[in-house]
Amino acid sequence: MVNQAVTTKSKVEKLTNQTVELKEELEKVIDEKENGIKAVKRDANHQANPVVEEVARAREEQDEACKELDAL
What we know:
Strand content: under 5%
Largest sheet: none
Distance between the termini: 103 Å
Helix content: over 70%
Shape: rod-shaped
Number of helices: 1
Order of helices and strands: H
Mean pLDDT: 94
């Protein structure tokens, strides 16, 4: 009985250690994925900014053109 208890305790400790290691690995993978997502968002924003600025300029030009037409 004592041997079985010692063996069981050893197995539980081993499984606990494996669980902790797997949890740490999973946290690392999650961090890497989150950092990748942040990088993609930054890149998308960087690429979108010139387009947004161009759209804003086009709207201003359109507003000015409409005002000129209204003045006629």
